[in-house]
Amino acid sequence: MTYHVTLPTQRSRPTSRQLTQLGAGLLLYGVSIALMLASGLGVDPWDVFHQGLSQRTGISFGSVVIGISLLVLLVWIPLRQRPGLGTVANALLVGLVADATLAVLPRPEMLSWQLLMLTTGIVANGIATGLYIGAGLGPGPRDGLMTGIAARTGRSIRLVRTIIELSVLATGWVLGGPVGVGTLLYAISIGPIVQISIARFSIREVSA
């Protein structure tokens, strides 16, 4: 999925606004993942994979997220991608926040509450993505994997993203990850939410 917005350029020295926005975005991102998981109605493709791997290994969901993030960053090396502060923070913080939030969230049984938790999680996820990408301190590990493969192969971002997400979704489903109505709802709604969010939160000043 391509977001038709101009992303901010990274500065050599981040401002307090960038750091604050990055932190808020990553915290909200971790909380949003936990909300979708706790709803029990399905999650985005990467988290289907993360949860399936967590269930198979007995490792906490957040620890799996961190571990996969670090492995993905290793793939950046042959792709000649350069991580930023936001990339490293994303890899380390999102999983910790997700685990902490899952520890205190209820698991509702009423469908109305499940749907509320799911939709809140999806909207929050889109806003969080706009916040941390808009801070201009580097993409998340999975976003960088997508853009790196597209750049090296000459294929479109849309095609590369589709292949990656279908691959992790299929693997996660085989592992027993939670595929459901939430997975479909996320797929059809996250693009517009992220596009609006990035446009709203991008920090466009590029002076050092």
Q: What would your notes on this structure say?
A:
- Residues 1-9 have low confidence and may be disordered.
- The chain is mainly α and 208 residues long.
- It has one domain.
- It contains eight helices and no strands.
- The longest helix has 24 residues, at 16-39.
- The chain has helices spanning 16-39, 45-57, 61-79, 85-102, 111-134, 141-153, 157-175, 181-201.
- Helices cover 73% and strands 0% of the residues.
Task: Describe what is shown at a glance.
The chain has about 210 residues and is an all-alpha fold. The chain is built from eight helices and no strands.
- Which descriptor suits the 3D outline? globular
Largest sheet: none
Low-confidence stretches: 1-9
Number of domains: 1
- What's the number of extended β-strand segments? 0
Estimate the helix proportion, in percent: over 70%
The pLDDT mean sits at 90
Measured between the Cα atoms of the first and last residue, the distance is: 31 Å
The SSE order reads HHHHHHHH
**What is the helix tally?**
8
Cα-atom radius of gyration: 16 Å
Q: How much strand content do the residues show?
A: under 5%
Determine the structural class based on helices, strands and strand pairing.
Answer: mainly alpha
Main traits of this protein?
208 residues, mainly alpha, 8 helices, disordered N terminus
